[in-house]
Amino acid sequence: MLEPQTIANPLREGMRVARAPEPASIIIFGATGDLARRKLVPALYNLARENYMPPVFNIIGFARKPRTDAAMRAEYKQAVAEFSREKIQAETWDSFDENIFYVQSNLDDPDGYKRLKQELERFDQERGTLGNRLFYLAVPPELMPEIVEMLGKAELNTSAGYTRIILEKPFGRDLTSALDLNHRLHQVFDESQIYRIDHYLGKEAVQNLFVFRFANGILEPIWNRTYINNVQITVAETVGVETRGEYYDHAGALRDIIQNHALQLLAVTTMEPPPVFGPDQVRNEKAQVLRAIRPLDFNEIARATLRGQYGAGAIGGLQVPGYRTEPEVDAASVTETYVALKLHIDNWRWAGVPFYLRTGKRLPKRMTEIAVEFNLPPLSLFGKNGVNPLEPNTLVFNIQPDEGITLKIESKIPGQDNRIRPVNMDFRYNSAFGQVAPEAYERLLLDAMLGDPMLFTRYDEVEAQWAVITPILEAWRNIPAPAFPNYEAGVWGPAAADEFIKRDGRKWRRL
To answer: Which among 54, 268, 281, 363 could bridge 274 via Cys, Cβ 3.0 to 4.6 Å?
Structure first.
């Protein structure tokens, strides 16, 4: 076996990535699809450009469309040129290009998996990939169980080296289907081989949330119910459903964003410090806090949840259609494109603190953030002379698009009067470090090759997330939807969203 190589690269200087992955074959199911073109291959190319790929590797596309190796290479070159965060470099591409291969097969054809196995064994012998295989299922969720079963029948779930499988979200449609999918997966693969991807966990700003919380002593004493008034997690999108109308109309915002991204952000924000910063320990703490989220019963759901659907409007000065007129969307659809929730965590640290989660499509800004609002001082010493009421201190983790951290504090305005106004103390990644952060898929693919599952979701986390979401889905089926559409594209959701939080004496953070 080749000795691990030390990586000397300033982009990772000081990070825990200290060795190159072992030689491996990376097999992409759904190789001709959007995810492979837009995210996976550009990420692998950028890893190669920065010397993070294994010393020997193959990228093997597996899909039903007819392609030659040469055609697949040309298609991926165009994808990298269009979607890579860095411009394509001829020398890097030429060495990357020669490692791309293609196996054409229907996903349910046993002969295709036999050919794949033969190719993998040939590469092990001729190219020295040591039996290491990383399967990536870049396919719709309903196809995943069949592929997993076929891999097992072809005995591709074990090899002389490591065998790992990456699955994209959504992982199930509700708690029952998630339990079933986990059961079917575990019949073929051990849990240690399974990497359930939530790309938000690969974002630099989310990784820095771990560091900010657990590497700075100033925060821990106030990170609890005594000092924190509420937490708001927002995932706002300006886009509509684009080419995903058929999928989205069967999923909706609750499944698409809240069940995975938003609840994972909640878990990272609220988890207890692990005894060791390792994969099992971190995921233990996340699972623990997810299980502590108070279940909503049928009567509470009407008050603790709100849903909306966008109509026609304007985004950035351009007119856009309403959801019901988007391609492949039911003209009478009651699928939600906006969700607001209020959740509570019933544990010692967070008891009584409300967590407000919201997400929506066709909102005015593309933005994801976690805003932690602290309690006001117990006594206002500057409330005279017409001074405006104090605003609470707020610590904001900006996840995208401008990764960073903002702390809002009150400050005196220069002059003879005691006039006060809030000001922001800002930290921004790009300006602080003078470099562009890597894409989330780059970090996650590298971690999967290194065998580090910390930033992937474990089975019990997924089940705990669905345990929160499934009662809401079931209640919504029995509660008539609002009169959709109930917000115009280009506004911050339904008018009822303001009342939703206002009745608690709070307001949404202005974005």
So the answer is: 281
